[in-house]
Amino acid sequence: MRRRSSAAAVASKRAPAPPAPLHATGNGAGDPAWAWEERRWRGAVNKVRAGRSLKPARWKNGARMCVALSFDSDHETSTLREGSTSPGRLAQGEYGARVGVPRILELLRRHDLRASFFVPGVVAALHPDEQRRVVAEGHEVAMHGWIHEGTSELTEVVERDLMRRAFDTLAKIAGRPPVGVRVPSWDFSATTLPLIRELGLLYDSSLMADDEPYELLDDGVATGIVELPVEWIKDDAPYLGMNRATAIRPYTAPSAVLEIFRAEFEGALAEGGLFVLTMHPHIIGHRSRIAILEELIRYMKGMPGVWFATHAEVARYCKATA
Amino acid sequence: MRRRSSAAAVASKRAPAPPAPLHATGNGAGDPAWAWEERRWRGAVNKVRAGRSLKPARWKNGARMCVALSFDSDHETSTLREGSTSPGRLAQGEYGARVGVPRILELLRRHDLRASFFVPGVVAALHPDEQRRVVAEGHEVAMHGWIHEGTSELTEVVERDLMRRAFDTLAKIAGRPPVGVRVPSWDFSATTLPLIRELGLLYDSSLMADDEPYELLDDGVATGIVELPVEWIKDDAPYLGMNRATAIRPYTAPSAVLEIFRAEFEGALAEGGLFVLTMHPHIIGHRSRIAILEELIRYMKGMPGVWFATHAEVARYCKATA
Amino acid sequence: MRRRSSAAAVASKRAPAPPAPLHATGNGAGDPAWAWEERRWRGAVNKVRAGRSLKPARWKNGARMCVALSFDSDHETSTLREGSTSPGRLAQGEYGARVGVPRILELLRRHDLRASFFVPGVVAALHPDEQRRVVAEGHEVAMHGWIHEGTSELTEVVERDLMRRAFDTLAKIAGRPPVGVRVPSWDFSATTLPLIRELGLLYDSSLMADDEPYELLDDGVATGIVELPVEWIKDDAPYLGMNRATAIRPYTAPSAVLEIFRAEFEGALAEGGLFVLTMHPHIIGHRSRIAILEELIRYMKGMPGVWFATHAEVARYCKATA
Amino acid sequence: MRRRSSAAAVASKRAPAPPAPLHATGNGAGDPAWAWEERRWRGAVNKVRAGRSLKPARWKNGARMCVALSFDSDHETSTLREGSTSPGRLAQGEYGARVGVPRILELLRRHDLRASFFVPGVVAALHPDEQRRVVAEGHEVAMHGWIHEGTSELTEVVERDLMRRAFDTLAKIAGRPPVGVRVPSWDFSATTLPLIRELGLLYDSSLMADDEPYELLDDGVATGIVELPVEWIKDDAPYLGMNRATAIRPYTAPSAVLEIFRAEFEGALAEGGLFVLTMHPHIIGHRSRIAILEELIRYMKGMPGVWFATHAEVARYCKATA
């Protein structure tokens, strides 16, 4: 520990080890941000950016607004992704496949709604019949990583490999190639956008720069890729998630979650905009929670002029109209 | 940063150091999950799995649904398990024995209900009279580990030893051998199911793959073991727990906890299913919380066709009927 | 990984490295708890224990129940204790002295109530006039450590020294020796009880084994020391605390905190028991929170037969009566 | 473990390794606080302190109270500050610029209110038109660090450099030199106050020792600097913030946040005092949250005698009047 080769020592003097930032995540990191040159922070910000708005003047068939319901079918991968094979934890996700998805499909059927299911490749392989039923009932199956990996921890080569594998797996099982992607944990890396372009996808639904759809810029260049933005606010996991190993707990009452989702919907209605809602079968699929989803659906259906659509439908409409 | 010695580069290619998964727990771990072969993730998922549903067509005596109340009498072991002997923290658990259990027994007696108490071996040895009273008043005493240890951190040999010791201790103190188990912290390991079979237990109540009872599969093989599934949602600890050393706090108001428990019950009622509720004497036993348990009990008793039963009774009925 | 030198293997067999317990705190620790002999866990549990109940048949002057309000005047020591001298964080505690205590004293005066203030030695030295005013207005000043140190991290020698220093400082500033103590963070160590006995104190208010007053046992021996038990449930900090460096946030609405405190009071009223409430001037002293304390006080005063008393008065009454 | 070389032992005696305090942050730290001499803790507390109150007898034009709304336009710097360039996380802040600020400006315009925007230098450089619009619509632009750095981790030289750079950037873009500062994360260091004096600023809004304005003392010396105190309680972030890497979640329902803000306002109204509210465009700017801000504004405007002012206006008035 005491002695190092002089070459290493010199290198060390030239490039002193900066303090590790507390929550540094994602690509980048290194020396403290306040020491960065303008080129660096400006470059980081411009890497992936919101371009022109794709909010249409009117929604399909003259609807006032648009609701896009989505379900991230993480199931067992929310445990596997951490390298854990704990049967106790895997069962928590197994619920999503055994109970959550059937309950959600039944609810959507009863209300005659179509939604989008974002499915990791491994989940599709573990539960192929589930994906076939989802498609058969008129819903969309779209990409959600391979095993719900943390994208920003991957090299570009690995990210590409996993994305292609996921694409092929979904295409084969669902019977049609996916046209959209939601990056697991919304952990969009610096190499994700080029890979989305390589795959020729229509849309992404992982970023948060707006409530309304927009076109993604790749280092300032318009890509034609439609972004259908998400937010933790419009996600069941932050309020209702549970992780025994951390302090993450389902502290928020379902009635309060309903209040939040409804307020987001009402804002979209007032603005004639888009309301994207993200849920998880092993979270929202439980009895005390599916009840608020049904209440929300009833409320939204009670409003005139609401277009319920899959993400693919929304993206196609916006791209064609805007 | 750019150049490395070729030896280091070679070493790096042979055995690249994988990033340590953030929350890796349980058996398994090692290289990142996205690098696992199919055999590995499929094997992990199939290790312990939900088999056929054991939900009966009708519940006992024609009841519409079933309520199984349970209390995990962790008492002092919630401190001891961490290797801590802090008198300050031990007193928090002592409350469970001194105040919580008597208050709960009095409540159950007043409402003429029978429940299940899951008791670590050490707790039984520290409070033998408590277990005898629990049994004398018609309730079930079942297994809950030795000292509330983290099962997935044990070798199989240690897990077996602790399980046998817990079994013998309960059998001796409660006057009858236990027929069921709830793994502490629901931390069901890869070796737990074979050990449950070795002990010849009737049921487990630690897994989460369903709301309804099901048969456990051991690497795909039906075991005859009844699973009475639990969930953090139907547990007082996530909402009301408190751990000074972490950010775990009792943020949720009792009225909101009541809302959640009631909604879970209502879902079970609507489906004619099972409602398993997990509580802890040192958590639910406090004045502001026992009040919501009583309110919940009154509400549930007000519904026609509810069968209140111990876990052993439910498991026996389901196994015989399904 | 597969092969080890036989020497290492032998060493490993003799003294296997136990997994470090996740949240090990307090005295003790070492090998995992499941490997402890009975003598060890039994000894730990018996070190400090609740003895006979000191709940009186009737409270003073025939009152039905007793309310003991307390304020832990941590002020700047909630920052200093961590070795931090951050002016930003110190100001958060400064509020307790500059605004919190005056607002609380005014509230108590308006309602003609007496309460107990637990004050670290350093806080008394920093704010001597505050302590004199507290005493002059009829309230109790009692011990709360030296600088809000973590007691279980101290050697016995240091713990004794700090306790004596705190005792002398309070005696000098408040004009009378304190008769009771609340250990900072309720972090009661294995050596705290003997030190309380050495100082000849009347009571402690740091443990949680009951709602009602009880006599403390020191390794099974009755000490005559009165315990006026506390609980995180009856404390403003868990719901309303804020620590930027952790995930501790004031997530619970004041109305929900009021709900909890009122339910605890109602339980005590129904049982004819004791209601001890712990608050902090820099937490409860804020405008949105002092409002719920006032509402609680009005509610409690509206009930007949409530005796409001300082901790010293309660302890003296219980000791004399029980 | 038992024996060490005598040199190491001597070194150890001279400089014993103190236990690392759990949450030590800010300047200071070293040996445990309970071992500090009086001079040290007294010096720490006196470094930056609240001096005489600057609460005026009457507010401007005879108003009963004063409301100062503020928005910390952190945008992308809440990600960059941690050394992260994750596009996924950057988009969360981008929302503040693209949607949050326009929505807030529109709301303020509709209600004819003026507010203060605290803007890091890097944000001003990334979004110069935003700052110009903010100023053009009558609002204040004030300092908020360079890249939302953690001030207490900086040397004095770096802190001065960043502060001057931020000052110059804002002056150039906003067209006028800023007169006030809010330290990022309210992480006021031991060298911040002298630097504020060097820059000749009118006020700071980062400390928490009072609800009312006060004069800052620098080591006991009155500085003439006005403090407009803040608090986490009167901030949207603690309730509604979200950080995937930690357990920080938006657990509190907007209606509960509104309850808290309203109660703080009511307290200020009752006392004829100041109500400073801190918000963030990427937090409060969302649909479900801007709604409660509007409701709060309507409520406050419905009360007679409320003076809405920018921080600069409040500071000037208090300095001139007190």
What are the SSEs and their pairings?
The structure is a homotetramer of 322-residue chains.
Chain A lengths: L5 H9 L23 H9 L1 E6 L11 E8 L4 H4 L6 H24 L5 E4 L1 H6 L1 H9 L3 E4 L12 H19 L5 E2 L10 H8 L3 E2 L9 E5 L2 E7 L9 H4 L13 H18 L2 E6 L1 H4 L2 H15 L4 E3 L2 H11 L1
Parallel strand pairs in A: 2-3, 2-9, 2-10, 3-4, 5-6, 6-8
Antiparallel strand pairs in A: 1-7, 7-8
Overall body shape of chain A: globular
Tell me the number of structural domains of chain A: 1
The name of the CATH architecture of chain A is Alpha-Beta Barrel
Name the structural class of chain A: alpha/beta
Mean pLDDT of chain A: 92
Question: What percent of residues of chain A adopt helix (DSSP H or I)?
Answer: 40-55%
CATH topology of chain A: TIM Barrel
Head-to-tail CA distance between termini of chain A: 62 Å
Uncertain runs of chain A are 1-29
Chain pair with largest interface: A-B, 49 and 63 residues
Number of strands of chain A: 10
CATH C-level of chain A = Alpha Beta
The largest β sheet of chain A comes out as:
5 strands, mixed
Name the strands of the widest sheet of chain A in spatial order. 1-7-8-6-5
Radius of gyration based on Cα positions of chain A: 21 Å
CATH evolutionary superfamily of chain A: Glycoside hydrolase/deacetylase
